[in-house]
Amino acid sequence: MKNTLYGIGLDIGVASVGWAVVGLNGTGEPVGLHRLGVRIFDKAEQPKTGESLAAPRRMARGMRRRLRRKALRRADVYALLERSGLSTREALAQMFEAGGLEDIYALRTRALDEPVGKAEFSRILLHLAQRRGFKSNRRTASDGEDGRLLAAVNENRRRMAQGGWRTVGEMLYRHEAFALHKRNKADDYLSTVGRDMVAEEASILFERQRAMGCSWAAPELQAEYLSILLRQRSFDEGPGGNSPYGGNQVEKMVGRCTFEPDEPRAAKAAYSFEYFSLLQKLNHIRLAENGETRPLTQPQRQQLLSLAHKTPDMSLARIRKELALPETVQFNGVRCRANETLEESEKKEKFACLPAYHKMRKALDGVVKGRISSLSISQRDAAATALSLYKNEDTLRAKLTEAGFQAPEIDALAGLTGFSKFGHLSLKACRKLIPHLEQGLTYDQACSAAGYDFKGHGAGERAFTLPAAAPEMEQITSPVVRRAVAQTIKVVNGIIREMDASPAWVRIELARELSKTFGERQEMDRSMRENAAKNERLMQELRDTFHLLSPTGQDLVKYRLWKEQDGVCAYSLQRLDVEQLFEPGYVDVDHIVPYSLSFDDRRSNKVLVLSSENRQKGNRLPLQYLQGKRREDFIVWTNSSVHDYRKRQNLLREKLSDDEAEGFRQRNLQDTQHMARFLYNYISDHLAFAQSEALGKKRVFAVSGAVTSHLRKRWGLSKVRADGDLHHALDAAVVACTTDGMIRRISGYYGHIEGEYFQDADGAGSQHARTKERFPAPWPRFRDELIVRLSEQPGEHLLDINPGFYCEYGTEHIRPVFVSRMPRRKVTGPGHKETIKGAAAADEGLLTVRKALTELKLD
Question: pTM of the entire structure?
Fold first, then answer.
């Protein structure tokens, strides 16, 4: 197939990649199926918890490191004791073996008031080095285990102050709270004390022994001992010495700027990046009136910038109120009209404005009111960058001091949390773009004005296959996404090698959950299960109440909308006869914003109406169709009865400008989530495509899942997950056929069936021209061909179904759908469980296992 023109469709999920190879005609439109397949792989996370697969290994490695460091610290204390002449390891070992020793806490308390021997003091120093207290590596530890440990430390500080105890040892020895045990139990942090409290006790004991004539408790020995007792590697730093993993680990993970490759990316909390983001938001706000839209004026932008520096939250309703605007305010598809209350709109339309700036402002106001306004932009950026990079308090304080902050200001800033993420641009790039954004230019226009290519792609060399590793791959931090992308690259490269030719184009659909966290995916799964259960209950109602033997998906949609609308037609407001609900020609499910304009098939764009009303509405908006009192009644009903905010917006939309219609189409046709854009750019930048003038420059397309779902239903294709993995290949075939030409044909189809309405001569009403046009398919008998190709014997009947395609390419290469699985090339994981087992009676050949009482279960 060396000279075959073909396209690739990919359906990418968190644990699978469905793929389809379609043959193309001269204009790049699909005409037949070459290959179908599925790649299955394990999600790169723990199935039950969502934790990294490397977490158990990392925890075991961390435990080994802690044990090793503890042993080294103990060895260093022994060496110090020998060098100072206090005792030797052998002598101490003999003393421990002999037994009969005084309780260590009693000894620590007695050493405060009377001299002790060298061996006894050596015991104390060894004990303190092994029980040296808790010190968090984090700046703040308000939750989790660190939070509970710090809470216990603070409680013991209170106990010490209340009881007047001189040292931790004295408190543990004399306070009744520690009578039963002085060491922590599972989930019990009673005896946790701070490391500074232990160090203070060591210093007091040295001073008291020197005061009582023990010359061996010298200040030099004290200093050397405290250096061993208190040493701890910074949370930010990796291994010491010449290790390649040394240095600040967070700083090393920060990527390079998209436009300035020599510059690190800016912290999202940096003032320059926040201000840059705010300007982009303001420049995308549109004011709409009578179907026409315009951007904010320069004075209006300045007024909102001033407001943003006073409050961290802004809403479209607040913008309307601040600027006294009569027009509708729009941002990212959300609209705030003049008749909406401030309280109603603010609940749904807030977006953050300079959140980190306001955190720092409030913190510094506690020191000097209005201090942040006197800081330079460089100081604000430096403070936010330090808070994002450095988790160790000493390092953070040093960086804030370098930035010119005073001690009280550093104390206020050091307690701030939530500074961690980084943007895609450097501070240098942000500062170059800001002057152009301040003039009202959009991001792409500002990039061009600053001399940047706002796409930031396409400059590298393209190859026959995709590289397995490229600098862009470093952007992916999620193991789940990294594995899905890596497997997708393998699939694409495998297809290209098998076809022995470059593809004409690649179309990808990315599962929504791929960009979600484990918790968000769990919530999505829960919502889908609840929705499926609700649908099944409603289906059973349709069978039992309406005696529908095999209710369809459209029957279900009608029934759900009938319930949501309380049995009322959305346009005429007449009661709908439930007995006629499923009779042909009585009611229709109408797209509020016509599908030919919006490609929005969500329930928020659907209402149940009388068929006669649907025919008369045609391809207009409801408020364009309804006039006079009917229009007024409809607005009242919508505001009082429609609780879905997005649906209410659609119903009350008065006009759809060309810009708004294009925005609708782009949002609903193209996948704009970050990982879809990453794959789109990765394939565009690195893959060489077949040469064809008819195909244009754009060769990679990110298709929205909502569109492919709609097409799958209209083409009569069922997605049955219980049947195995073949549904991934089915989805990939649908993705491959969602071409620009198909979208144009579908748009024309809906334009026809939504109505060619015209006014009667007397203006009394409108008429609707019905057509008998069928929903367009990629090619004749597409559904039949796809079903055969998914069967176990796919070579049969293909010449009858699609003779034009298979007569040319033959059927001898046709094979069943190939489901491949990611191989496991090495054994990973622990060699055995962590359970400690011991021999029972030797003659019985049994093993004993120690378990906590709380883990025992009665049969």
Answer: 0.75
